[in-house]
Write a structure and sequence with these properties.
The complex is a heterodimer. Chain A is an alpha/beta fold. Helices cover 49% and strands 17% of the residues of chain A. The longest helix of chain A has 32 residues, at 724-755. In chain A, 50% of the residues are buried. Chain B folds into two domains: 3-42 and 169-366, no CATH class; 51-150, abc type-2 transporter like fold, CATH 3.40.1710.10. In chain B, 65% of the residues lie in helices and 8% in strands. Chain B is built from 15 helices and five strands. The longest helix of chain B has 31 residues, at 170-200. Chain B is an alpha/beta fold. Chain B has helices at 3-18, 21-31, 33-41, 60-67, 82-90, 104-109, 125-146, 170-200, 203-208, 214-244, 253-277, 281-298, 310-315, 320-333, 338-366, and strands spanning 51-55, 78-80, 96-100, 115-121, 156-163. The chains are: A alpha/beta, B alpha/beta. At the A-B interface, helix 13, helix 14, helix 23, strand 24 and helix 27 of A face helix 1, helix 3, helix 5, helix 6 and strand 4 of B.
Amino acid sequence: MSPEQKAMGMEPKPAYVARLKDVSHSYGGTRAIDGITLDLPAGRMIGLIGPDGVGKSSLLSLISGARQIQTGEVEVLGGDIRSARHRNRTYPAIAYMPQGLGKNLYPTLSVFENADFFARLFGQGREERQYRIANLLKRTGLSGFDDRPAGKLSGGMKQKLGLCCALIHDPDLLILDEPTTGVDPLSRRQFWSLVEDIRRERPEMSVIVATAYMEEAARFEWLAAMDAGKLLATGSPWQLLARTGSTTLDDAFIALMPEEKRATHKAIPVHPPADFTGADFAIEAEGLTMRFGDFTAVDNVSFRIRRGEIFGFLGSNGCGKSTTMKMLTGLLPASEGTAKLFGKTVDPKDMDVRRRVGYMSQAFSLYSELTVRQNLDLHARLFQLPADAIPARIEEMGRRFELTDVMDALPDALPLGVRQRLSLAVALIHSPEVLILDEPTSGVDPIARDQLWAALIELSRKDRVTIFISTHFMNEAERCDRISLMHAGKVLVSDTPDAIRETRHATTLEEAFIAYLEDAIGETAASSTPALPTAEGEPKFTAPPRHRAFDLRRIWSYSLRETLEIRRDPIRATLALIGSVILMFVIGYGINMDVKDLTFAVLDRDDTVASRDYIADIAGSRYFIEQPPLADYADLDRRMRDGSLKLAIEIPAGFAGHVARGHDVEIGAWIDGGMPQRAETTRGYVQGMHAHWLAQKAREIYGDAASGQFSIETRFRYNPGIESLVAMVPAVIPLLLLLIPAMLAALSVVREKELGSIVNFYVTPVTRLEFLLGKQLPYLALGMMNAVLLWLFAVLVFQVPFTGSLAAFAAAALLYVSFATAFGLLVSTFMSSQIAAIFGTTLMTIIPAVQFAGMIDPVSSLQGIGAVIGRIYPTTYFNIISRGTFSKGLGFDSLLEAFLPLILAAPLLIAASAFFLKKQAR
Amino acid sequence: MRLANIFHLGIKELRGLLRDPILLGLIVYSFTIAVYTEAKAVPETLNNAPIAIVDEDSSPLSRRIADSFLRPYFKPPAMITAGEMDARMDAGTDTFALDIPPNFQSDLIAGKSPVVQLNVDATRMTQAFSGSGYVQNIVSTEVSGFSAQDNRAPTVNLALRARFNPELNQMWFASVMNVINNVTMLAIILTGTALIREREHGTVEHLLVMPLTPFEIMAAKVWSMGLVVFVATLLSLIFVVQGLLKVPIEGSIALFMAGAALHLLAATAMGIALATLAGSMPQFGLLLMLVLLPLQILSGATTPRESMPEVIQTIMLAAPNTHFILLAQAILYRGAGFSVVWPQFAWLLVIATVFFAFSLRGFRKSLR
């Protein structure tokens, strides 16, 4: 135990777990937190309440240290969270579970592997890890699912696994950001009873929870209500109720909202249960079944909904609600069963059915790059409303859903409630008869939710629109005419809310649902009741070792995770391994510097023995292929223009005579200059042959003894056959060993940024260097496998002789692949999206490696920027070593100078990456 | 199919692109700075070739030969000893090493036919070929100049002219080929990422509940992204290649752009196909590497097609790039008209149609 920790433990228990003073936070121009001062009591269960987008998540991420503080002071666990020293000390004491189902989990990793990853990050030994994971999985009822990938768990199980991962290191402060959003009532209850159990065992632990469910918040000990980045009120739930004179927290929250917002609130009109008996059926589902492979997502679902009814659909995420809705809209063809709309079977190809249905999907799925008006306009046009009626319709929808003021704003700039109204307006633009809404209210504040519902009720009762809606809120379920509860692809019950309550003799709808769920799950539910481990039986593990600057275990944790992820992604793994071999094959055979089989034709105006002798010299060479003779200049021009001739020769009339008399005579030759490289070589050939012909003539006339005769003996070294393959293959290896490892490494970090799991790096003790090295290791190994494959391929398939030192080549390859992966990591520290990383890596590898690194033109021949890049780009030096060891028979001693830049490259780039990588989000 | 739907969806794509500064930046960069710098960076065929001379004769003639290797073709020759030669060539310092034997001048005068040895690093294919011809020419010229008084051989001159590019300026070739490579790259990237982004944001699903067919959705992406690349290509050709780099273009730009439009149809369809094959953005990135590189290297934009093995030449006939590059070279360099390049147009039309149909099938399937 470190002195600091000892000191912390000895101190009298501090009264506050976190103290915030004048904290403000902005993203770009938007202010998320606006001058909050707040003291959070220690050892309590604290709730941050308020709808989405009011700054709850930002506040939690500031307290957890995941986000950099802009203005104000935040003191957590008795120290300033801005200080890196304090953060280093408190990483092991804080656990943070970000918003979103399984947001910080890795979907392809199994339940056990996920938990193991976190345990390793906190430096736990094998025995401790196994004990803790087994214990936590057992208590959360996940024991039977050790090997299931996290991505295939239901919403509730994901969140329970997230909690396991957060509790793996016995934190003193547990921060949960909307942990139960999108989770079914039973899992929700299990989740909270687990948190309660843990708190009973470790009463010193403080818990801060953000939630949008007021029913949940009513059970917390202390609440802070937030709206629009400001604090509305603090205190225990009954204090808040008493202060506002309300009976429910929902009402209390509305009462606490600022005056101008409250003004827009209208109480939901109590809508009388309508009588639908006479109405025709709008939606009929019979035995609907959907299978994905051997997984049954929806199992034999049947229901009938009458015109004008509001039909609610409840169930956890992943229970088949969305799939059922998709089958009803014709998005997905059902594996079995039929879905009918207005008595007609749903046919995905039938455009007319689509015109009668409005669909609003779960996430906001309109175009964020279009303004409100443009979105409405696009959809109106796509639904083929008459062009002259569109502006009026847009105005009408704008008025009805109170969007008139924001018509020219971009959706991203609008609060969630307004965006959901826009989604609803878009879904209704073509006046559909059926409205299918997939969780339209999640994350929306109570006032906006009530507004939306008021609109829905009006649609149902006044316009007789049939509404099919899924929700997680029980008070919304109460408002439906009938509801269905789904679990694991099956409908458990389908009836009016009152009837369901009565059947189960429950006081609330939630209780009734939990009873149904427990029946459905049967035994599993029983075993998932948390069992307290006996205090005696718990082995004592030494407290986590004090913060070490460098820990191999943490590196290994990331390496292991990365390896597992690649292995679970067969496409990426195969591409990464086989891809380079395919490319080598293609480039090796494709880049061919041999210039041969050049087509030529002659315009022979002399047509004598001498002229034919001259031509025979060219025609006999292996470089040229003679074509039918040219008729005249027009022929010459035409055939050169269409590319069928690369060389044309004109021998003037009287050629033989002039030569015999020793007169000056001129032979004309035209080369196709379209491709300068080829033209240059052709010119060399022609000049050489002309000189040869002249020398021969001279010899014929004057004999060997004439002075001025000499010869040039040209030796093509290292590649006597002047074969392209021998020249190219050793130069292609450096290109391929850069490309793929760099790309994979670059994506590895950016991917975490984009998917959100980067937060694990922000809030755990892993250092920047450990994170980078951990990420680099697997790709280094992959790169080396590539190097071996490429070498074997070059020697065995292309039969390029390898003449130098294999050890030198291997050592250089290792250094070079380290550089390539480090380069990818450096690129990824600057990029925030995977697309940008792909572009960036492509531009920064292919161009320099192909053009400037000596693959085609030697670096010493380059000019300008190209020459500078060529001289500092490590590919240049690996090229020298690769060619040296393959073709020139060299070893370490002759290549020392080329090794030096390679040795420096990787450490420099890793250091730069560590420097630019941020340990906190901004 | 409704043309209005295709039109409106395409406008949506263009508006989306307008709000993406990174992609816009990439387009501008690829067609301006990248074309310019790459064209400028490519050296003339024989430029600053490193040469070393082992002068074992030290005669006026040998010095005359050494002095005649001039920039920009050769770097000033390094005068070295015979012992240094191997090490320098091993390290790649010199591409050429010319060994002038002892008594070269006197042997020459005595008519003993001395032998000059030229060592060439044949792993450097580009310089090895043309360079050794240059070296031989220079030595021959100097020797015959030296012994001019004795030269009674017939004076048959070879008037060698390069057509279409009289000075064999590499930049002319490189600039246009860079533009063409960018056309393919951006067409694939823009359409591919547009589709993947739409899928990741869930908006594809949204489109599908509307009265739209997959054909309309795909056609909208193809025309809008194709148009962007088309305009960028035209501007780049006129302002960067013709304007800034002063590369003369012989043929009709309109004819070339017609070919480019066909090529874009094929390339954007390829982008859609890759995006449907790839499950995610990283997989798209890897696929892009595997597809783009062979397309650029084997299509004849880097090295002449006719020197590739038959098999590769045949396989590459299926790639739109090959035909696009053939027609580009014919039109832009050799001023060929439609009567010459119509086979390439026919090929492109067939390939584009097949690619589009194939992608559409894949796209339909991926939506299930």
